[in-house]
């Protein structure tokens, strides 16, 4: 059974859920140790083309998939044959298989690969090496979605995506504890040591990045990015819902975009919506005489019948300094040749 992301994970004040944090600490030490050992012992494989890894240091909610999709878009705009490679989390197929938007569903390949396939050819594979070799036959560059803790492939560029929300004592790394005591996949210093640059995803209603957050990254290049709606939210009262790592960010974004949000219902990350879930949502909408609105990532997990009277509100990642970011990528790719 999937559970909602604990909100206290992303609060720096350790007095929140103090007992729970303490009890879970030993499991976090084990998790961190296993991850470090796996990375240290790996012998990365060169798949025969450049690999750009887009990952994060936390268990989710940073915006890495929209960033991966934007990286793909920028590369292809520059004439580079870039393709995506994902593990296909949540899908039943092991791969390697190229995602086909005409036949594959989220149940087959997962929700994130369906989003990536809208920008470029996309592959899923439980075995990243096998997937990379299959994709590399036609690709100049592979964009690896969620690959920072996966050491199987030799990486040309490693990008870390970080949530830039720091208001009300919220902090992207919480108190720095490793899962399940906190949101970290590995200790901050260890993850940053393997990174080539950081992408900070700023909320739409925040003008500037927190200087304290930028200072955390030391000498690493930092690029600012925003999730930009492709259009306004649907008109009239709406009941929003989302099954992502930080569903409260969707609620904030809808309100910031001017949505008349009557209610909001969070679900666990990658939630598969059951008939009873949709019945509950439609009942809530009826109470407020409202429509239903959700994210693109949630929309692709809905069945065609479930999508009736539900509006997807798609957003895309855009770099504030697109030219600077593109130049950084090009320089790294050129130096690796």
What would you note in describing this structure?
- With 337 residues, the chain is α/β, with parallel strands linked by helices.
- The protein contains eleven helices and 13 strands.
- The strands form two sheets. A nine-stranded mixed beta sheet has the order 3-4-2-5-1-6-7-8-13, sandwiched between helices. A four-stranded parallel beta sheet has the order 10-9-11-12, sandwiched between helices.
- The N and C termini lie far apart (46 Å).
- The mean pLDDT is 91.
Question: Which features characterize this protein?
Answer:
337 residues, alpha/beta, 9-stranded mixed sheet, 11 helices
Strand order of the largest sheet: 3-4-2-5-1-6-7-8-13
Class by SSE composition: alpha/beta
Q: Main sheet, how many strands, which sense, barrel?
A: 9 strands, mixed
Q: Terminal Cα separation, in Å?
A: 46 Å
Shape call: globular
Helical segment count: 11
The run of helices and strands is: HEHEEHHEHEEHEHEEHEHEHEEH
User: Spans with pLDDT under 50 lasting ≥5 residues?
Assistant: none
**What proportion of the residues form beta strands (DSSP E)?**
15-25%
Overall pLDDT score: 91
| Radius of gyration, whole Å | 20 Å
Task: Give the proportion of residues in helices.
Answer: 25-40%
**Annotation, overall tally of beta strands:** 13
């Amino acid at each position: 059974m999937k559970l909602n992301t604990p909100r206290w994970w992303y609060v720096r004040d350790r007095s929140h859920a103090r007992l729970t944090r303490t009890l879970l600490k030993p499991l976090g030490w084990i998790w961190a140790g296993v991850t470090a050992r796996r990375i240290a012992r790996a012998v990365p494989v060169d798949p025969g083309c450049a690999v750009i890894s887009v990952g994060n240091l936390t268990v989710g909610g940073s915006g890495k998939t929209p960033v991966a999709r934007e990286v793909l878009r920028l590369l292809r705009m520059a004439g580079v044959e870039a393709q995506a490679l994902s593990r296909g989390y949540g899908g039943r197929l092991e791969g390697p298989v190229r995602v086909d938007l005409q036949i594959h569903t989220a149940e087959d390949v997962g929700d994130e690969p369906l989003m990536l396939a809208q920008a470029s050819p996309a592959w899923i594979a439980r075995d990243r090496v096998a997937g990379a070799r299959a994709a590399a036959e036609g690709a100049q560059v592979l964009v690896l979605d969620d690959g920072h803790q996966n050491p199987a492939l030799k990486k040309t560029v490693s990008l870390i995506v970080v949530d830039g929300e720091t208001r009300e004592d919220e902090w992207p790394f919480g108190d720095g504890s490793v899962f399940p005591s906190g949101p970290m996949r590995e200790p901050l210093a260890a993850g940053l040591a393997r990174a080539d640059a950081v992408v900070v995803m700023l909320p739409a209603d925040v003008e500037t990045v927190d200087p304290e957050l930028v200072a955390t990254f030391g000498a690493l290049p930092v690029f600012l990015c925003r999730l930009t709606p492709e259009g306004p939210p649907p008109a009239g009262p709406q009941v929003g819902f989302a099954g992502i790592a930080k569903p409260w960010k969707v609620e904030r974004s809808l309100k910031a975009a001017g949505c008349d949000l009557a209610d909001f219902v969070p679900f666990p990350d990658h939630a598969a919506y059951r008939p009873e879930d949709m019945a509950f949502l439609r009942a809530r909408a009826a109470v407020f005489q409202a429509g239903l609105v959700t994210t693109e990532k949630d929309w692709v997990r809905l069945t065609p019948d479930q999508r009736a009277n539900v509006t997807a509100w798609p957003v895309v990642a855009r770099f504030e300094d697109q030219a600077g970011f593109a130049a950084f990528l090009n320089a790294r790719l050129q130096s690796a040749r």
